[in-house]
Amino acid sequence: MNIIRTPVVELTNTPALAYKFKMSSGGAGLKIIYEGSDNTETYAITRRGELVASPPQTAVSDAAKEAFELTLGLPYSARGKVKAVFVAATDEDEAVSETTPEYNMIESGEYKAWVAAYIGADFKMNYAKLNKDMIQFAAKNKTVAQMVEEKEPVEAILRRIVQIQTSNLTKNKEYMTPEITDALIATLEELDARSAFKELKLHIQKMYRK
Q: pTM for the full model?
């Protein structure tokens, strides 16, 4: 059974592999697999980009800090379990893949369209370009201007921008539902909580003051 995860990265300061994965409980997790032993580490990643160890009292290791940086912006896809190189895949990894949402965002045309449009030469999401394009769109779009004038919440305006831009990327004139749009935004933000849509949100906040 496949896991929704990023490509595996090899750490430079520690003999270990790591990857980010989509947790069955929601949100992103980080897995560290150490060479030559059965030792692994698992962390949850908050929406603010903070690592939370499991169990929570455990200190965040230097390996986890490096793995977090190396996996920033790497896209999710359905991939095989990590095994044979260092240690066998754990039951925990298998449990992550058992929860299948009603709408599989990772395999959706909408998610794949955003990845295709903004994947960089380093195979990471280019959120600088993404935010630049979204800001240029927001600055001249009449719907966005009206929502700003009516003091709609930032998240509502972001949702509308993503709906419209997804329609443009997929050439589908029918907009996604708010629920699916929110799921797409959450998935893109999981890849890099520090950069995804950050500049766009700041720009929308500035638009209120004009």
A: 0.78
Q: Tell me: do 79 and 128 sit in the same domain.
A: no
Residue 70, strand partner residues: none
Q: What is d(CA 174, CA 209) in angstroms, rounded to the nearest whole number?
A: 32
Residues 186-200: pLDDT tens digits?
A: 999 999 988 899 999
CB 123 within 8 A of CB 74: yes
Helix (H, G, I), strand (E, B), or coil: what is residue 86?
coil
Angle subtended at Cα 200 by Cα 47 and Cα 161, rounded to the nearest 5 degrees: 95
139 is in which domain, residue-wise? 109-208
> Which residue has 């499991």 as its token pair?
54
How many folded domains does the chain comprise? 2
> Is 183 found in the same domain as 113?
yes
**Segment 139-143 mean pLDDT:** 94
Identify the CA nearest to 61 among candidates 89, 31, 35. Answer: 31
**Could you give the CA distance from residue 128 to residue 118 in angstroms, rounded to a whole number?**
9
Convert the pLDDT of each residue in 71-124 to its tens digit.
999 999 988 887 634 444 444 444 444 344 456 789 999 999 999 999 999 999
Q: How many degrees, rounded to 5, is the angle at CA 174 between CA 169 and CA 179?
A: 90
Give the helix/strand (H/E) hosting 181.
helix 178-191
- Give which of 72, 169, 78 is closest to 124, Cα–Cα: 72
